[in-house]
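ok trying again, last paste got cut off:
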Amino acid sequence: MLRVGVLVSGGGTNLQAILDAEKSGMIRNAKVVYVLSNNASAYALTRAASAGIANECISPSSFETREDFHRALLAAIEREQLDLIVLAGYLVKLPDEMIQRYRGRIMNIHPSLIPSFCGKGAYGLKVHEQALRRGVKVTGATVHLVDEGLDEGPILLQKAVEVKPDDTPETLQRRVMEEAEWVLLPRAIEDFARAAAEREDKA
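nice, full thing came through this time. structure:
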């Protein structure tokens, strides 16, 4: 059973989708054992506590330097002995040292069809505002592995979502979450865990 850590900055709807997938049996080979946020008021921490999952806030604002924050973040991740790290709306750039140490074991969910509407400044509602301004007829979500670039790592899964003529950023955001993000992220975790189990069986 893979030990999964979820990093999140806000409400944690994607975290909830993962936990629901565990309960339903869709995720069989992995389990969320740790949730970390940079935001002490993030509802994701409440979701984790309610599910009996170890959780904590490690915020850059609590440290004198970014380097101190990076050391604390990496120490927490190492302490939990995680097999997979999932960024589920985590709005802090990971230090290169962490990416290098966990290369191939960090995945991120992004609310667009990468390479559209991604990179610096493209997060949350801003992604959907960009999509509507551009006039695209289809958007969606992407799960990808994390590398040193911003939303540039290898793509694992994508799912398209229709943009409707009367959409607002809020309605589009909700549809992308319901039809794509909450579907893709649990599937990507289970695919990753199953592949890891198969490699272990062959070893």
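cool. Residues 169-202 form the longest helix (34 residues). The CA atoms of residues 49 and 142 lie 28 Å apart.
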